[in-house]
Model the fold of this input.
Amino acid sequence: MSTARPCLAQLSRICLYSNRPGITSVPARSLSTTAAVAARGPNAPKILSKADKGLRKASTNPQKNKKKGEEVKKKKKARTAYKQYDQRELEQFTLLDAMRYIRAFEVGQKPTSVKYEMAVRFKSQKNGPVVRNRLRLPHPVKTDVRICVICPPDSKYAEQAKSAGASLVGEEEIFEAVKDGKIEFDRCICQTDSLDKMNKAGLGRVLGPRGLMPSTKLGTVVKDPAAVLKDLVGGAEYRERMGVVRMAIGQLGFTPEEMQRNIKTFIDHIKKDLAHLSDRINKELSEVVLSSTNSPGFPLSGQFTKLDSSITSRDLSTS
Amino acid sequence: MPSIVKRMRALRAQLLAVRLGPGAAILPPEVTRIHMNFAIGVEDGHYGSRKFWRNCLPRLKYHNPAIPMTVSRTADQLGPALMTVHFISAAEAASTKPEISSTTSKHTSTGPVPESKAGSSTQRTETINMKHREESEILEQLLKLTRAKVVTPTPEETRQIREMEEQNARSARDAAMMQAENAKRKREEEILRQARGTIDTN
Done:
């Protein structure tokens, strides 16, 4: 061992200089550590590969750091709930203040193309059921939803669905189109009798990831599609992702009163959903944020306006 | 959502920027509408008008929430770049209130608001030529034309601005320090890697 060390060190130095003659300021310390590691004889390659792994994390002394890193890993436990922050730092806005800022950020945009968005954050566990539902806002945000109804094209359901505003009605043609990748709809409803056919057609692989696959659980497999259609046109879906529900809540051209009604309906709906979850699951609202297409998010305080506020809702009602 | 402190710091900076700066001015009640008309691209002198829209117009809108400010951009790059300011007389301004409009009602157009829409309450219009003008020149002309009152920061806001600047200076210093540190670490790692590589091949 003692004889091998100087020999190898010399060797490595020779190789280094022959490969990269340009390097002039190679620290002697780093070189010597390499040499020491390399000088362990037959074990050398194995240790080196481990050291390489540790090296990716950090720093000059790989072995020491590797040990430290492993210890930290063992101690760290995965979080079971979504992280909550100290709410004292949170600045909250009244609806009118938030809308005044948002309208300033969105100045000069088309009033129908820009949307107010709402993000509702929960205190919640990472596993367990999520809040997921559909609602109809008093003032719908998006009115041009394309809906596809899967039912036999010559049945009475087809006629009703078409008259209720479905853009696509049929069975085989739709299956073929979907398999070809032509998905020309935003929602999909299936009539109960056609469910077996649809399941056989194997649409799940295409529609599933897009969230379009009809299922009984979501209430998109129904006896009478026409009745559901009426709800869907002008209705909106929301679901919790990573402890937050996000949804478009209004167009930029809405007045504060209209926005107030929409927000109230939405929050009430979510609270009802939370109450319907089973008793063991404890979910609470922790934050409600209003933002828009091009503006930052404004945490809402729940008030419409402050008493000493200088702006009125009429000021924010102009185009 | 990122942590609250981070979010609030970013939000405060953005809100300060929309409250104060070039364009923060209160227009007199005689002004009923501002309309900008220019091309989509920046060639042929449309640069300043877009800059004005992006930077100054939000501040104007914040301090005058009731005044409709519309922007319509055309594909005609060689066309004019004009700002139209609509006025009514001072007596009428005191009595009439802005018309309520909402996109929930059906008669609101979805496209750019047509010139004629503000017709009824407007008595005279003035135009500012924005072509080949810097945003600061456009703003200066607008302020002179409307005799607007420029908003100055309150003591509270000055304090916030100072705090923000201190914070920025601190973070810039820390970033520089960390960058140097990381560069040093990477350099050492690289040297180690090279030394090992040459031994392996032997």
Remarks:
- Chain B touches chain A through 54 residues (CB under 8 Å).
- Helices of chain B lie at 4-19, 47-63, 90-95, 135-146, 155-201.
- Chain B has a mean pLDDT of 83.
